Recover the amino acids of this structure.
């Protein structure tokens, strides 16, 4: 099985699995959050991050797979420390698309 990362125009990552023995392509059923995309781009092992941060593997999976999971500032900060990047870099990647509402 090979894994291909396909970067689309909206900066979403689509991971495609190729099974050469039966010659089919299959996309996973789960979606991925911006934090999940960032961790994939940085080639970060989620188990190692969970160990370093003290977050449970379940919570880290929830943050990377469920759009409705809210990433708290404390979690963002300790994840950034664990992977050795500035917290602002993760914040910009995960929330950079947001804009303020126009003044009335």
């Amino acid at each position: 099985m090979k894994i291909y990362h396909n970067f689309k125009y909206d900066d979403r990552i689509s991971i495609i699995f190729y099974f050469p023995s039966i010659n089919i392509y299959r996309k996973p059923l789960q979606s991925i959050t911006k934090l999940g995309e960032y961790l994939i781009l940085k080639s970060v092992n989620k188990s190692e991050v969970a160990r370093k941060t003290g977050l449970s593997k379940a919570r880290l999976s929830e943050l990377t797979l469920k759009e409705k999971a809210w990433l708290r500032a404390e979690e963002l900060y300790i994840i950034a420390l664990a992977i050795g990047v500035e917290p602002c870099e993760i914040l910009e990647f995960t929330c950079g698309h947001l804009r303020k509402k126009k003044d009335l």
